[in-house]
Amino acid sequence: MSNIVLRMPTDNNVDKVDNVDKVDRDEECKQKPMQTFEIINWIAAGGHLFNATLTLVIGDDKQYQIYDTYASWTPYNGTCPTNQYKVNMSKGTFLVNPRDKAPTMSLSLLWLIFAFHILSALFQGYAGCSKNYASNITQRGVNPLRFVEYAASATIMLLCIALVSGIDEYFALLAVEALTFVTMILGLIAELLFDDTKKDYRLKQIGWIAHFAGWVTMLAAYGGVILKQYFFSLEKSDEGPPEWVTVVIFAVFGLYNIFGVTQFIQLCCKFPIHKIYKEECVVSGQKNVCGSSLNVFIEMMYVVNSLVTKTLLGWMIIVNLIVEDNRDFCA
Questions:
Q1: In angstroms, rounded to a whole number, what is the distance separating the alpha carbons of residues 4 and 218?
Q2: H or E stretch including 30?
Q3: C-alpha to C-alpha distance for 33 and 316, rounded to whole angstroms
Q4: Domain spans of the chain, in order of start
Q5: DSSP letter string over 39-105?
Q6: How much is the pLDDT for 36?
Q7: The sheet that has 85-89: what strands, in order across it?
Q8: Which parts of the chain register pLDDT below 50?
């Protein structure tokens, strides 16, 4: 019978195994080279930071008074102005002005511009540092942080647009902010429901509903408040606003629509709207656009458009903040 010899591992063998494991771990820990969209994201973050810094360096502050409307009651003095009415009470006769208004706060245009630049820089820098950023884009086709940032920065941006276009009523500004915020949350819902790892076509149906609901809230904020006020002012005034105000209003409106169109294209490529009632999800493999995968192309579109839109808006307003404030408020 042959003898079975058991050999204990020597120290040298243990060291070799440890070295192999260490090499494997080192290989796993090596960072993959940054992809093009990650580089563009960092360039955009730097661009937003540059805009934020320069805003504070060269910008001059302008305060905008925000007014609240209320019904004022004053003792009747024998005259009843237009748009007011008399009310007889036990204490006497009073005049009621249902559209009286008074300033309740002021907003700094300079700091609002700085805020949406710095928020964009911080969020995109955070996304670039996130270990899941690249995999979320390439494997899932989602970037939830993008719409979280838009919910803050885009809301501030439209607040700036409203202020420079002459909207100073608290409730109108609140409507613009709330509708813009809801728009971005609906965009976030649509993006998450179109996650490439989710194959249930019913989720895509809900995603389409959220996307189109976002168009409704966005157009209500921009068209129903900002553009409506702009055209009504032109109709009732002998002279229109400065040309730069008109350029800002319509330029940002066009650039904002690019965000919605970008998501519309993204959703169509993943699950065409004409197949919304069919139990088939068209995400079989990555689609390519302009030499890049659909997910990467869409991410670069969002990042570039965000930088361009906020840079244009910021500089259009900053240039006018540099000019001496020629508003002469009547006492």
A1: 80
A2: none
A3: 37
A4: 36-72+100-322
A5: HHHHHHHHHHHHHHHHHHHH----EEEEEEEEEEEEE--S---TT-EEEEETTEEEEEEEEEEEEEE
A6: 87
A7: 63-75, 92-108, 85-89
A8: 1, 17, 20, 23, 25-29, 282, 284-285
- Can you state the angle between helices 201-221 and 170-193, rounded to 10 degrees? 160
Report the amino acid identity of residue 260. G
* Of 116, 217, 221, residue with least CA distance to 167: 221
- The two tokens of residue 26 are 């080192």
Residue with tokens 């890049």: 292
Q: Tokens in use for 61?
A: 């502050």
- What distance in Å separates the CA atoms of residue 31 and residue 232, rounded to the nearest whole number? 57
* pLDDT reported for residue 74: 85
Question: What pLDDT sits at residue 4?
Answer: 54
Q: Is the dihedral of CA 168, 174, 177, 180 positive or negative?
A: negative
Closest among 192, 215, 222 to 264, alpha carbons compared: 215
User: How many whole angstroms separate alpha carbon 266 and alpha carbon 257?
Assistant: 14
DSSP string over 120-161: HHHHHHHHHH-TTHHHIIIII---HHHHHHHHHHHHHHHHHH
Query: Tokens 């006769």 sit at which residue?
Result: 93
Tell me the fold of 36-72+100-322.
Answer: Rhopdopsin 7-helix transmembrane proteins (1.20.1070)
pLDDT in the model for residue 272: 77
Q: Are 166 and 238 in contact (CB under 8 A)?
A: no
- Check residue 78 and give its pLDDT: 80
Instruction: Give, in order, the Cα–Cα distances in Å from 261 to each of 46, 104, 115, 254.
Output: 26, 38, 26, 11
DSSP class of residue 13 equals H
Q: Which helix (H) or strand (E) holds 225?
A: none
